[in-house]
Design brief:
- The protein has about 525 residues and is an alpha/beta fold.
- It folds into 2 domains: about 220 residues, Rossmann fold; about 240 residues, 3-Layer(aba) Sandwich (Rossmann fold), CATH 3.40.50.
- The protein contains 20 helices and 14 strands.
- The strands form 2 sheets. An 8-stranded mixed β-sheet has the order 3-2-1-4-5-6-7-8, sandwiched between helices. Strands 11-10-9-12-13-14 form a 6-stranded parallel β-sheet, with helices on both faces.
- Helix 1 links the parallel strand 1 and strand 2.
- The relative contact order is 0.09.
- Bound molecules: nicotinamide-adenine-dinucleotide and uridine-5'-diphosphate-glucuronic acid.
- Nicotinamide-adenine-dinucleotide (NAD) binds next to helix 5.
């Protein structure tokens, strides 16, 4: 097992693979880093000389890529060569929730990870360290190892057929050895570069045998180029895999907890921001991740909790499963509550009314919209025939339409297959929602490049993402251009309520009694 790594490959050039490898290359100029992907367009975008076209928008990422790309950072579609040349291979492919078959709607779909393991097994001719960077269910390393070890069996095609390209001749050196590590990623989108430069900790889990210990040491040496050693934690491999799911479950649970209380604040006259501040000053609770909102989004929190819930059910721990599932249910409730408040306030219908959305991304400073609360709120308002006008500084028109259509596709699948094992998310599966045709969506959803155009003549404004620029808009100009009464639903509590009230707005925040 190699211990002095000079050549790294990463399979998957997405939101994690791209920025993570760019930072490794930046901080380790002595290591060649090649990021590969089957998506040709994505690789072309990573190689674009115009850095504003990088496929992932992250503050500071363009500078990192500019520094390392072409020096020791490369993006390519040649997956096999990258695997062959590397001593250490990161798997950073997507692990979405399964949308079919066993575990549909709950379990992680590991088909992409499995494909990577099979490809490594087929292509490798020398010893490799294989690093799980994707978020995976506990004990996935065992499955990866089983696939890799099968390539060492005398019956494996590579070991027996000298006709296959790259295969060793029968009397050549022994089959390669593999060591599997778990190295989950904790970066958050929007702050990825900052998080990678200065992580709270780096977690590395390895197998307990000698090869496992050598492999862990090799990865520690990579990170030690810029991360203080006391922040590099090494654990058993199962603990590392489970810690990633646990970290996301705890983070999401804090948001659902404060969002649950936001509903009670609205009934009782308390202010959720004051409550969050009051409890957050207790050092045992801490102030972070207590911002009440329209609901958490992003590609991971929901998927990882459902994955955890599925694992608990698999191991016959229904009480534990129910406990964590409630975090997701509460989040669905929060998105629904926000949409319902808009309809209720606008005299029980938004039919034909112009509702302007400020923000579509799942949080500020990213162009990622996966599982964004905006998608579900828009869907509920469209069910009531609203005219939705959207402005987001970073999200493309095509992305917004694709998000809404993807949701409809899921609804179609769920209603055509009566599955008992899928999660009954009322945002996606409820019988009260009808299927919206693509033409209906195109007719009722309008996307703008200029926020003031989106807001003109609106009956109401809904803030879905906390982009900083929204605070500094000319709110008097907006008020004058809107229909009266002019409603604002601040799903992020970012606007100055008193100032807006003074202008004449009727403003509602989350958890503001
Ligand atoms: P992504 O969808 O942005 O990127 C995954 C990439 O893998 C895609 O470009 C896809 O084309 C590529 N891919 C899939 N199969 C492939 C194959 N066989 N060969 C080559 N390329 C292949 O996903 P992401 O957001 O980067 O997430 C990746 C993993 O990291 C997931 O498990 C996720 O849970 C985890 N994670 C994500 C974040 C985040 O902020 N997005 C943070 C921490 C962990
Ligand atoms: C989250 C975790 O923070 C990362 O540590 C983890 O690596 C990542 O998931 C992952 O595994 O994918 P991310 O989803 O990028 O990162 O962004 P967060 O900042 O966690 O925000 C998630 C959602 O929660 C956003 O919609 C955000 O607006 C919302 N949120 C966050 C709140 O509503 N309130 C808060 O106080 C914080």
């Amino acid at each position: 097992i190699p211990n002095n790594v000079k050549n790294i490959a990463c399979i998957g050039a997405g939101y994690v693979g791209g920025p993570t490898m760019a930072v490794i290359a930046q901080k380790c100029p002595h290591i060649k880093v090649t990021v590969v992907d089957i998506n040709e367009q994505r690789i072309a975008d990573w190689n674009d000389t115009d850095l504003s076209k990088l496929p992932v928008y992250e503050p500071g990422l363009d500078q990192v890529v500019a520094e390392a790309r072409g020096r020791n950072l490369f993006f390519s579609t040649d997956v096999e060569s990258a695997i062959r040349e590397a001593q250490m291979i990161f798997i950073s492919v997507n692990t979405p929730t399964k949308t079919y078959g066993v575990g549909k709607g709950m379990a992680a779909d590991l088909k992409y990870v499995e494909l990577c393991a099979r490809q490594i097994a087929e292509v490798a001719t020398e010893d490799k360290i294989v690093v799980e960077k994707s978020t995976l269910p506990v004990r996935t390393a065992q499955s990866i190892r089983t696939i890799l070890d099968a390539s060492r069996s005398p019956h494996h095609p590579l070991s027996s057929s000298p006709l296959l390209p790259g295969s060793p001749s029968p009397d050549s050196s022994p089959a390669p050895r593999f060591s599997v590590l778990s190295n989950p990623e904790f970066l958050a989108e929007g702050t990825a570069v900052k998080d990678l430069h200065n992580p709270d900790r780096v977690l590395i889990g390895g197998e307990e045998d000698e090869d496992g210990q050598r492999a862990m040491e090799a990865l520690v040496e990579v990170y030690a180029n810029w991360v203080p050693r006391e922040r590099i934690l090494t654990t058993r491999i199962w603990s590392s895999e489970l810690s990633k799911l646990t970290a996301n479950a705890f983070l999401a649970q804090r948001i659902s907890s404060i969002n649950a209380l936001s509903a009670l604040c609205e009934k009782t006259g308390a202010d959720v921001d004051e409550v969050a501040h009051a409890i957050g000053t207790d050092t045992r609770i801490g102030p972070k991740f207590l911002k009440s909102s329209v609901g958490f989004g992003g590609s991971c929190f929901q998927k990882d909790i459902l994955n955890l819930v599925y694992l608990c059910r698999h191991f016959n721990l229904p009480e534990v499963a129910d406990y964590w599932e409630q975090v997701v249910k509460l989040n669905d409730y929060q998105k629904h509550r926000f949409a319902k408040q808009i309809i209720d306030t606008l005299f029980n219908t938004v039919s034909g009314k112009k509702i302007a959305f400020l923000g579509w991304a799942f949080k500020k400073d990213t162009n990622d919209t996966r599982e964004s609360a905006a998608i579900y709120v828009a869907d509920e308002l469209l069910q009531d025939h609203a005219e939705i006008h959207i402005y987001d500084p970073k999200v493309s028109k095509e992305r917004i339409y694709a998000d809404l259509e993807y949701l409809q596709e899921h609804r179609r699948e769920n209603s055509s297959r009566n599955s008992d094992n899928s999660r009954n998310s009322h945002s996606c599966n409820s019988s009260q929602f009808v299927q919206l045709e693509s033409s209906f969506i195109k007719d009722h959803v309008h996307i703008h490049d200029d926020p003031y155009n989106a807001l003109e003549n609106a009956h109401a404004i809904a803030i879905l993402t906390e982009w900083d620029e929204f605070r500094s808009y000319d709110w008097l100009r907006i008020y004058e251009a809107m229909r009266k009464p002019a409603f604002v639903f601040d799903g992020r509590n970012i606007l100055n309520k008193e100032e807006l009230k003074e202008i004449g707005f009727n403003i509602k925040g989350i958890g503001k009694g």
